[in-house]
Amino acid sequence: MTRREFERMAGVGLAATLSVWRARADDAASYEVRRRKRVEKLFQSPEGHPNGLEATPDGLWVGEQVTDRAYLLDIETGRALTSYETQSSNTSGIAAGGGHVFMGANGPAHLRPRRPHDVAKGGRIVKLSAATGEHISNYQTPDGGGVHGLLWAKDALWITQFRPLKIVQADADLNTFHDFNLPLSRPHGLGWDGEGIWCMFSNDYRILKFDIRTGKVLDAVQLDRNDPDPHGMTWWQGALYYCDAGIAPGHKDNLSKHAGSICRIEI
What is the reported pTM? Predict the structure, then answer.
C-alpha cells in the first residue's frame, strides 16, 4: 500500500482498523509498517520551538530552534534544570554524551536577529561542555550541508545528512568512519533503543528502525497526519519521544495546534 492510498483510507476513517501494511524501500527491500497506538502530549518546551531531543540519565536535552538555547529538562515534568546559550543557529538536532552536548546548526537564523557566530551557509555542528555550557568547537557537517538529526550512542555521534541521504557515524571530533543509506527523505530526530537506531522522517510521518551495520529496516511505525508535526526525537526507557517545533520548511508557521509540545509515542 502506498502512502497516498493510506492517507485516502484515513480520510474515510478506515485507517483505524489497519495495523500493518507493506512498504518498499529505495533498495527494493520491503518492510512492514504498523500504525502507532497513541501519541501522548507531555508538556511544552521552555520556549515553544523544540527541534532536538536527547534523553539521558541526567534529563531530557532540548534544542530550541529560534533562540538556539540548549535546555536540560526533567523528563517527567518538563521543569528546566539548566540552560545554555550556544553558537548554534536555526537549531535542528541535539545530542549529549561523552561529557559534551552537540547542536545541529541547520543554516542561518531566520526568526531572530543575526549573531556573529551564526552559520552563513550550509550547516555546522556545535560542541559545548555538558557540565558548564562552555563552547568547545564548531565543525562542518559531513556533507557540508544542513543537518536535522543528531544522536550520541555507542560512544559515537550519529548524524543525518541529505547529500546523499545517509546516517553518518563519527567520533566526538567529527571524524567520520561509517554510514548507511536512508530510504526516505527529510530525516529528522534519531533515537537509540539498545539494538538499533530509530529515525523520524518528517515528510512521511514515519519512524524507521535501522540495523546500524547494514542499514536494513528492522521496524517501522506510522504516525497520523493529525498528530503533532514531527521534528526532534529520542528514545528513553522503552518509548519514543518527539517534539513539534511549530515551524514548517521555509521558516513558516506550521499552523499546528500542537506547536511546542513534547510527546511520547506508544508503539
Answer: 0.91
